Amino acid sequence: MAPIMTFWSALGGVALLLLWLGRRLSSRRRFAGLPRVGIDPGFLGLQMQAAKDEFFHHGQQLLEHGYAKYKDTPYVTQTCDNERLVIPDRFIEELKNLPDTQISFKEELLERFMGKYTKLDAVRGTTIHRDIVRFQLTKSLGNLLPQMKEEAQLALDNALGGCNSKEFTPIKASSMVFAAIGQITSRRVIDDPQVSRDPVWLKTIMGFTTSLATFCITMRTISSTLRPIARFTIPSGRKLRSDIAQVTMFLAPLIRKRQQQQQQQNLNSAAGDQTQKEDGPPQDFVQWLAEAAQAQGGGRDTEPEAIVIKILFLIVAAMHSSAVTAIHAVYDLCAHPETMRDLREEARAVLGAHGWTHSALLRLHRMDSFLKEGGRANSAGIVSFQRLVLSPIRLSNGFVIPAGTHICAASDARSRDPALYEAPLEFRPLRFYHPLLREAADGGGEVDAANLFSSVANGDSWFGVGRQACPGRWYASAQIKLVLCLLLTEYEFKFPDGQTARPKNWVKDEKTGPDMEQMIWVRRLRG
Ligand code: HEM
Questions:
Q1: From the alpha carbon of 319, which atom of ligand 1 is closest?
Q2: Which CATH superfamily, name and number, covers 79-270+280-524?
Q3: Cα 179 to averaged position of ligand 1 atoms, centre (Å)
Q4: Which atom of ligand 1 is closest in space to residue 326's alpha carbon?
Q5: For 160-174, 252-266, 303-317, which range has the lowest pLDDT when averaged over its residues?
Q6: Under 8 Å between Cβ of 247 and 108
Q7: Pairing relation of β-strands 506-508 and 511-513?
């Protein structure tokens, strides 16, 4: 018996080895002849760890080098997750509007964020989470603004409760901003203040992105064969499951209750009862997702658990990114007191004339330029346009990108290209402000969309690129401007005495971000 077992084990081992070699060979062939930036892991992958370490610590410099050297040729680099084909600007134009059946942001994300272990796979095969943001949410911005202001004001009053108008109080800027953005987002997820303002609920949803990221970072260090078991044993796996259970516990009963009420209403209408509920259906993600799933024929997407996972996907997409943008803005304001005065004046004038409305926020042209410059100067990551190629694509230079390739653009290096931006290392708050065009827009002329913060024109990458760019960018822009306006019109804030420059951003792997520990001094403005 034993020799037979040994024979089969050996055969199994050889088969696995051949499979692995086959994969390595096809991955090497895929990019044969293309230049490479950074350490080559080699055919057998012997240098893999060295290549990943190099990218983790020096990815920014590697891509700067690639950007300068290869303007017309895609090149290969090994990141901490996978091998990527970095696409120069010239070809992004050819790719950016291809359908998501050919290149997919979502599939790339689900692979990097381990959709099958994090449950985020629930957004596969559907676009309803994207559609409700793009249409229902964006269309309702005008109506939703008073409620967004109420939440932001409440959160800021809470976070800055100890501040008075006599002396400055030290506050951790990131906590203050997270509180405001978190509470605005929470009410959009579920328009029921009993839940949306519940401290346990708020803590869970505000920490969810970190729970997810910690789980994925840990899982990446574990071999793929062990991951199906490891996800149950590692502490970050337990934390992720407990967060999902917590959110489900809050939302699932409410979703079921709303579904029952809807059924009852349908029965009443069928029986001829035309009485309408006085206030229409709630304006929140839960409602829009349930309605969209129903409109698409019901099925699995209408189940409370499926709605909860889509909500979690939206929380990950919406909350951290918006908070980080607003934190950068607070630091940039503290580092440029003259800009702070300028934007405070603009906010007072525009809000004074048009009230706290969405159309007023759209008229904050100087703030638009300031935020757009902030996005340029503080990249969201060292790459953008991360996509998984689902079917082969021929570029205009004849090169065919094979299916299964992970692609990206070196957007951080691009944002410092002097051929595109004059004096790129300078922070110029009014770089994107053109007074004459603005006057025309305010006078009812054509809106100069390319200069809006929410625009993704001209290669700006803060909100992504092309057809699959961020659908929440108009909402994000409104909520960030709202929080900044509240801070500017009700408070004075600055860095602690002696500090004039903003803290340096951190860069690790392909991610960058603001220092989350920075303190600022805050004082209420008088009357
Ligand atoms: C300042 C805040 C935000 C930033 C910087 C940001 C950035 C991005 C980026 C870079 C992408 C990928 C697009 C691409 O690669 O072309 C994306 C996708 C997405 N964003 Fe945002 N986002 C923000 C706020 C929001 C908000 C508030 C929401 C929802 C309310 C949202 C919902 C989404 C969704 C659903 C996707 C995925 C779209 C898909 O599956 O195709 N984002 N976002």
A1: 27
A2: Cytochrome P450 (1.10.630.10)
A3: 20
A4: 1
A5: 252-266
A6: no
A7: antiparallel
